[in-house]
Amino acid sequence: MLISLTISAARLLAKFCLNLYGTFNKPYETWRRLVRESDLLQIGFFVLILWVYLSLAVVVKNGLGTGALFLTFNLNRLFNISVITFLVVTLLFWLVGTWCGGKGKLKEVASSWAFSYLSTLFWFFSTTLLYILLPPP
User: Fold this and answer.
1) Contact by Cβ (8 Å): 79, 52
2) Burial of residue 5 (number of CB atoms within 10 Å: 0-12, 13-18, 19+)
3) Is the pTM of this model over 0.70?
4) Residues 78 and 106 sit within 8 Å (Cβ to Cβ)
5) 121: pLDDT strictly greater than 80
6) What single string gives the DSSP state of each residue in 57-90?
């Protein structure tokens, strides 16, 4: 049981990494495959990456000297707002698409919308790390 779960998780992670790689090298083919396959479990990796980034951002903004309760409260608030915004925007895009005659499924919209955050998360991580390495004067 545990071995099959581990193998499934490894396959999902490999598929996610290939899709990330394909987003940069063969974007058209990768995005067509993403929409066709629409694996919602891959969104979990974006949720994890988002949580890691927001944890880093809260610590950078408030400092490690701030109390753990305050840091946790800020992290939870930012994380919950980000997830709720993702869900609302995904649902609105899907609803507008179906009202305009589109035939897409909600999981296809959610999967492609999650992967569209890749460049944003990359940009946020880079600016935060540059802020740590080269702080402003």
Assistant:
1) no
2) exposed
3) yes
4) no
5) yes
6) HHHHHH-TTS-HHHHHHHHHHHHHHHHHHHHHHH
